[in-house]
Amino acid sequence: LAAQAAGAFDIDRALQTLGGYTTAHLADLIARAVCQAVHLALPERGGAENPAEWLGRVLRAAGDHLGEHRLLVILDELDMLLDALREGRAEELVFYNLRAVMKQLPTYRWLLILQDSFFYERHNRASVNAVLQECRDLHLLPLDSTWADKLIREPSESQGIHYDDDFLPGVIHDLTGGSPYLIKAVCFNLVNQAREQGRTVITHRDLDRARGYMVSEGGRYFNHYFKYLSGEGNGVLMTLSQASDENDWVAEEELLTRLDSLSLGLTERIVRRELKRLASQGLVERRSQPRAEVRFSVRLFYDYMRTHYDSEIDLRGSAAPAGESGGAK
Q1: Which segments of 87-222 does DSSP mark as H helices, in order?
Q2: pTM of whole model > 0.90?
């Protein structure tokens, strides 16, 4: 309703519902979602039309049907399609066709949502880069304390559930580093605990349980951190997790000394390269004053890495430690 009032009509579609990884599957998903949202009968695909041409015709019809409203198509969880491409389950043509449709309809608006790790690796795939070159980058930074407080409080308060201590939202912000995804995951757990016990308040004990659960089930919550993590980066993070008891700042020289003592073959050049990469991916933060120091950006991820530390660090792969398998995002 807010979108319509502003003169736009948004179509939000998560690609988790995608039935396959071809242009036909993607075109069908978008076309059906658009027609359902704008209350338009789905046009049949002509015998000579390819999926991209048909989708373009459907979107033009939807735009005409909306009149003065503008169409905004939001493709959430684009990572699902990128994952399939990386694993050989999707065809490169999907992205070239998506780009063709976008260019055919220059007055339409698209919002493509994907994780940082995929965005940083986009240059490795010409087809993916072809689509993203048509877009303007909007990097969602971690939320500051004010916006995090709104995301933490408002959804639960709308359901009649409150925090019994005004300090709790600040603790959640500190634990998550302001990550909207992790904030939502923590709060979902907290609200569920209160509901299951018939309570309308969230307590410190609830947060302790949520924190313990997310650390023990980290493969589900931090899998996106490991998708493009190199073996060397994994070794650096594991070692960093043991260098401090409370995720305090650690001198980079101390980290280098610790890594050298493990005889992993990580030279200073490699370590500093990995630290730069980890910082660009939002996994660590660095500062240069009063000396070069580093720490985890997200306290929960630090807890996870420290809990699942494996002294037999394997630099050959980038899988989650302690045999964790990736789960749903």
Answers
A1: 93-104, 116-120, 126-132, 145-157, 168-176, 180-196, 204-216, 218-221
A2: no
